[in-house]
Amino acid sequence: MVSLSVLSFNLLAPCYKRVKKTREAKFPKLYKKRWEECLSFIKDSPPADVYCFQEFWFHDEYLQAFVEVFSSDYKFHSAQRMCASDGLLVLTKNNINVKSSTKYRLSHGSTRISLILEVSAANIDIVIATTHLSFPHGMFARGIQEKEIGNLIGKLNTFQDRPIILCGDFNAEEDSVVYNIMKLGGYVSAFANVHNHEPAVTHRTHRNEDVLADYILYKNVSDTIPQVKATDSFLLPIEATDEVWLESFDISDHRPLVASFEIYATNKL
Question: Which residues lie closer than 8 Å to 210 by C-beta, 6 or more apart?
């Protein structure tokens, strides 16, 4: 058995954060201050074995800031979206053997992607994937979302012999079609499994709406004999409630979500 902790966090890329009717990327003092606060917050939180970041900004100074903090203990795996300044960054602890890292485009109707890693931890093979689905601006965008998650589930179904951990910003509430597609695909939310409910709020949108958008899910090889067991899950900061948006949390418009797992080499819990 191996224990594995995963942190999923949409960083709110400076190229998207709204400031004075423009974007934060135009104000270096602002984005440098925020990314320093963000990295300090992550460093001061319990360390994870795997970090999955969405809206990672592909900017040289931004990347270097992450390298300075994490490179001694973690390997970097990234994928940039086509025609966009952001993408996905996954950090895996040095003792995790990463066999492959694949960028997967979710739909021809969008530039959204997933980063899929085949890894081995303590000689136990698993798949770890992160993604960021389109924002549901309307019915058409919701249709794109549903295609994105359907295609991703189909891609992950090709890894039939290993348990899967899937996390990210799905831009979808618990009563959405996207959530139902994941549930029907055999995916279980770690937070819901541990607490018997999903968090009420993980994201404050650009419309100033407080919603649930972020999940860490897992899928076992067998429906009857699990290999992955969620042992804990929580939002950061740990002491804050998940029922309302934390007004003092201003380093991103998403709160980091953490899940801890026990993963078994044999099909016995």
Answer: 201, 203, 204, 244, 245
